[in-house]
Amino acid sequence: MNLPPDYWQTLRLTLTLASCTTALLLLLGLPLAYALAHGRSRLKPLLEAMVSLPLVLPPTVIGFYLLLAFSDSTAIGRFLINQLGLSLNFTFGGILAGSLAYSLPFMVQPLQAGFGQVPRSLTEAAYTLGKSRLTTLWRVLLPNMKPALLSGAVLTFAHTLGEFGVVLMLGGSLPGRTRVASIAIYDEVQSLHYAQANAYALTLLAVAFVILVALYWFTKKDAARLS
Amino acid sequence: MIDFHLLKALHTAAGPRLLDVALTLAPGELVALSGPSGAGKTTLLRMLAGLSRPDGGFLTFDGQPWYDHARRQWLPPQRRPLGFVFQDYALFPNMTVRQNLAFAAEGQPDARRIVDELLELLELSELAERRPAVLSGGQQQRVALARALARRPRLLLLDEPLSALDLPTRLRLQDALADLHQRFELTTVLISHDPAEIARLADRVVELDLGQVVRVGPPVAPAAPATVLGQVLAVLPGGRLRVQLPGGATVEVSGTAAVGEEIGLAINVARTL
C-alpha cells in the first residue's frame, strides 16, 4: 500500500490531539465527576445536562459556537485574543479546546459512575482514620475505581480519534497543524484518492479495535483481582 | 468522659420522628445501644463519630467540645480520636490486611510496632499479606477491629459488628472485644440486637425506640431455657409430633418419638426487639 505523503505527520497530530485531550480531561473530569457523584446541590441536574450536551448535539453546533467564541467578533474572543494572546481558531490549541468540550461526557460519565460504585463506608472509614479528603481520594477512591478510570481514558482517547465535525469547524484542514486522520480521509475521498483514504481509515480502525480489546481485557483482569 | 445531648430528624417507616438522646458515658465504660430498626441507633453512633451532623444539641469528649449547635462548633471525624467499626467492615479492597492497618497507623511514631502488635493480638499475622476479599466474615471483622484500633483511639464505636457471624465465631470475637476494651482503656459504644451478647459485654444498655431512650440500665441476662414435659399424642407425616403440654394445650414439634411417650421440650425465651 502506498502511504499518503502526509501520513506520519497526520497520524502524529491525531495521536497528540487524542493524548492531550485524554490527559487534560482526566485532570478536569475528576473534580467534576466527584462533585456530580457526591454533590446534593439543586444545580446538579443543570451541570449534568451541560456535561452531557455534547452527546446529543451535532458536532457542528459545538464547533460553530466555539468558532464564534474564539473569533474577534465576540467579547469572549476579544478577551482571549487581546488579554491572553490566545488566537485559537485554525490552530492546534483551538482543536484541542474543541476536543475537550466534545469528549467531556466520555470522561465524566464513567468516572461519575465509578465514584458512585465505591461504597460510601470506605470514604467514611478513611475519615474516621484521620485521612483528609485528598488522601482518601488518592489512596482509597481512585485505586478502587481503576476500571472506571481506564474506561474514561480509553473512551475519551478513542472518541477523540473519531471526531470530525468539531475539528473541521474549528481547525479546517491545515496539514501538520489541524488536519487529523478523520479529516484527511474526507479530503482524500474528495480528491478521489481512495487508496490514501483507505490507509488512514484502516489505521483508525485498527487503533480503535486494539484499544477496545485492551480495555475489556484489563477490566476483566482487574475485576478478577478485586473480587 | 463523654457527655452529649443530640437531636436529629429521623425518617422512619412510621413517619418523621425526632431523635433526642442525652447521655453521659464514664471513661472505660462499655455501653450497648439496642432497639428495633429505625430507632436511631446507627444515626446516634454516626453523630458521635462525626459522620452525620446533628440538627441540634452538644457533644463533649473529656471536656473538649466536638459539637455545639449554639456555638456553631464542629469537629470533623478526622480530628476525633475514635475508631469506628462498620457493619459491612469497610475494609479497603486495594490493600492487604497489613496495608489496611498501616494506612490507619500512619503518622504515629511507632506505627510499625503498633501494626505488628495488633496483627498478633487479633491472630492475623498469618493473613497479613492477603487482601480482604479472600477472608471469611470473622477474619474480616478482626481486621476491621484491628484497623479501628491502629490509630490508638480513646473511643471505640461499633455498628452491629458481630451480627453477621456464626455463633462460635461471634463468641470468640466477643472475648476478643472485651479484652481489647480493657487493654486499650477504651470507652466503647456497641450496637447490638443480641441480649446474650449485651449481657456478656456491656456495663450498661441503652434501649432506643423511635428516637427516644426507653430504658437505660444494667443489661438483663436472657433467661435460661425452661423445660416442660409433654406427652406425644400423634406422629404426623414429615417428622412432626403432636404433643400435649401439662396445661392441656397441644403443640406440634419436630422430632422422633412413639405415641404415648413422654418427652422433654426446651422453651427458649426470645425477646424480639
What fraction strand of chain A? under 5%
| Beta-strand percentage range of chain B | 25-35%
Indicate the radius of gyration of chain B in whole angstroms: 23 Å
SS-based class of chain A? mainly alpha
What overall geometry of chain A do the principal axes of the alpha carbons give? globular
Described by strand count, sense and barrel closure, the largest sheet of chain A is: none
Strand-pairing-aware structural class of chain B: alpha/beta
**Run of helices and strands of chain A:** HHHHHHHHHHH
Characterize the overall form of chain B: globular
Number of strands of chain B: 15
Biggest interface, chains and residue tallies = A-B, 18 and 27 residues
Low-confidence stretches of chain A are none
Write the layout of secondary structure elements.
The complex is a heterodimer of chains A (227) and B (273).
Chain A: H1 7-38, H2 44-56, H3 59-70, H4 75-83, H5 92-117, H6 120-128, H7 133-141, H8 146-161, H9 165-171, H10 181-190, H11 194-226
Chain B: E1 2-12, E2 15-25, E3 30-34, H1 41-49, E4 56-61, E5 64-68, E6 73-74, E7 82-85, H2 97-105, H3 111-121, H4 137-149, E8 155-158, H5 167-183, E9 187-191, H6 195-201, E10 204-209, E11 212-217, E12 226-236, E13 240-244, E14 250-254, E15 262-267
Parallel strand pairs in B: 3-9, 3-10, 7-8, 8-9
Antiparallel strand pairs in B: 1-2, 1-4, 4-5, 5-6, 10-11, 12-13, 12-15, 13-14
